[in-house]
Each structure stands twice: as C-alpha cells, then as structure tokens.
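stage 2 :: seqdesign
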C-alpha cells in the first residue's frame, strides 16, 4: 500500500508533464505554421514567445499576467522610441542618456526585475537607436511589429492553456538578491563592458551586428562577468544543436515541398524538442536550440528565401564574437582590478 501511495504523486506529475509536452508541441507548431503561412511583420517573434510561455515548467501565468506583460513591453518600447525621436539627433546628450538607461536597466535586473522585461528594455535601448540612425520609421515599424507579434503569441498561449489546462504550479525557489552596493557595482561593470561595443557599432554603422551587441548586454549580467563567457559557450553549443536540426528540417522540406508536410514536420519537431526540454537535465540547452530552429526555419521558408547552412554559420559567428568579447572584457577588468580573481 505504501508503495502504491508513493507512486501516485509520480504518476500525477508524469500526467501533467506529458500534457505540457503536447501543449507545447501543438501550440508552438501552430504558431510557427501561422507565421510562415501569413508572414506578418516580425512573424517569427510569435512562435518564439509561444515556445517561451508554453515551455518548462508548463504552467499558466497568473490571472492578468498576459495583459501586464504586454503593457510592460509596450512601456519599455515607448522608452526606446522616445529615445530615438527626442535624443538621437543630439549626440552629446544621447550617448550619456543611453548609458544612464543601460545602467538603470542592469541595476533593476540585479534587484529582481522580470528577466523578460529586462531583455525587452535592452532591445529598446540598444536596437531602436541603431535602427533610428538608418531610418526613424524603421525603428517605429520594428516596435509596432514586435508588439503585434507578441499580442498574437499571448492570445495563442491563452487558447492553448484553455484547451489543455495546466497542473498545480511548482513551488517557487527562494531567490537571494544582491545588496544595493553589489547591485550597483555589477550594473556599473556591465555598462562599462557594453559601451565600447555600442560606440563601435554606431561609429562604423555596423547595424548587421546588433545581435552581437544585444547578446553581450544579456550575457554581461552574470555577476563578476566570469559566468558570461561560459554562458556564451553554452549558447554556441545550443545553437549548433538547433542549427543542425534546422538543416535537416530544411533538406527534408526541399525533398518534399508541400505545405502539409511542413506542418506535420513542424509538429513532430516541436514535440521532440518539447520532450527533451521537459525531461532532460539539459532542458535549457534544448530550449535555446529550439529557438534557433524556429529562427532559421522562418528565415529559410519565408518568401525572401535563404539557406539554413549560411544562416547557421552567420549566427554561430555572431555568438562566438559575443563570447570572445565577453572573455576579453572580463580579462581587461581583472587586469585593472575591477574583478577580483577567484581564489584557487
């Protein structure tokens, strides 16, 4: 009897896990199929966010969280657009203001701000001005397209959870936040690390390398920066996994160029990655790899076309550039004594 009673919670957990995998696979596949078929502005954002929301732990967000998230992203994007419209023409005011906003974002991240909002702020602060240098309307169109795709993604997630409700949420782990002095120091280090690359991209007009800038900003949030380069190496491995899956997906689709085959292949791919994400100890690696798969498939199946292999090489090169920059930056900061070397 005791053995049966002990097995009951495991059986229930397995039931909710399998339901979450099915919800993830079908929900993400539907989002990707719609994005590739209709091709609205920044359509690939929708399946990426659907995968994030339906991925582990596979639990529905609290009541009203979707609306709050959409409003939060809209506010962060409004900050970026105002930066473009008001401050961008005045370089002497714009660069210090952008640096201050970067520092404030890193500081709030250290003090527990929602990681998704942090990423959205970094995109708004770093990408919008760079796009605005090319064309102001380009930055505005990017923001509106992103918000539209996010709205579609949140709607699809709400429908997915209504169709297949989730189980009880797992207990929240206790998070120990750094004190104000440590948070201030880490935010300052992250800002100092990002600014030279930001100025280099502005001065050389290398808007094609904006992904490297955003990756450096995201990875530089690791305390002391030691973990940032390690996280970059893990991201390279994850992108290799997703890239190889994308190349296989693309070649199969070339062999059988039919919409129904693409739809079935997308469902199968999402279910396989969902199984790995929910059951493997390396679930986060497979989650990043699946994001790479979605991006590359969207790029190669859109009306503009493209080669999965070439896109993969470009993406991996950008990842390696970001990782090398982080490692070099950490080395320089250790040389100046800004980062204390680890004992032993």
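stage 2 :: out
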């Amino acid at each position: 009897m005791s053995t049966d009673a002990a097995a009951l919670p495991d059986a229930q957990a397995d039931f909710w896990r399998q339901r979450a995998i099915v919800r993830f696979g079908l929900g993400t596949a539907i989002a990707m199929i719609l994005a590739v078929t209709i091709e609205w502005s920044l359509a690939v954002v929708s399946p990426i966010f659907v995968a994030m929301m339906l991925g582990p732990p596979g639990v529905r967000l609290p009541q009203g969280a979707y609306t709050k998230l959409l409003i939060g992203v809209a506010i962060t994007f409004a900050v970026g657009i105002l930066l473009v419209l008001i401050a961008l023409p005045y370089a002497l005011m714009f660069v210090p203001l952008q640096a201050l906003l970067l520092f404030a974002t890193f500081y709030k991240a250290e003090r527990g701000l929602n990681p998704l909002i942090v990423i959205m702020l970094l995109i708004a602060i770093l990408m919008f001005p760079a796009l605005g240098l090319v064309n102001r309307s380009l930055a505005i169109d990017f923001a509106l397209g992103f918000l539209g795709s996010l709205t579609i993604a949140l709607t699809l997630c709400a429908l997915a959870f209504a169709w297949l409700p989730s189980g009880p949420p797992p207990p929240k782990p206790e998070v120990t936040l750094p004190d104000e002095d440590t948070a201030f120091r880490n935010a300052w280090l992250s800002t100092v690390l990002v600014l030279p690359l930001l100025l280099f991209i502005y001065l050389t007009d290398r808007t094609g390398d904006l992904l490297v800038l955003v990756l450096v900003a995201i990875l530089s949030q690791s305390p002391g920066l030691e973990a940032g380069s390690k996280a970059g190496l893990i991201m390279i491995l994850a992108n290799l996994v997703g890239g190889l899956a994308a190349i296989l997906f693309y070649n199969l689709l070339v062999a059988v160029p039919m919409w129904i085959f693409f739809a079935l292949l997308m469902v199968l791919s999402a279910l396989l990655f969902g199984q790995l994400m929910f059951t493997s100890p390396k679930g986060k690696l497979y989650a990043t790899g699946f994001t790479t798969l979605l991006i590359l498939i969207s790029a190669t199946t859109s009306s503009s076309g493209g080669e999965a292999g070439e896109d993969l090489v470009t993406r991996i090169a950008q990842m390696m550039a970001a990782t090398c920059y982080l490692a070099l930056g950490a080395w320089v900061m250790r040389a100046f004594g800004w980062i204390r070397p680890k004992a032993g």
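stage 3 :: structure notes
- The two ends are 52 Å apart (CA to CA).
- Residues 2-38 form the longest helix (37 residues).
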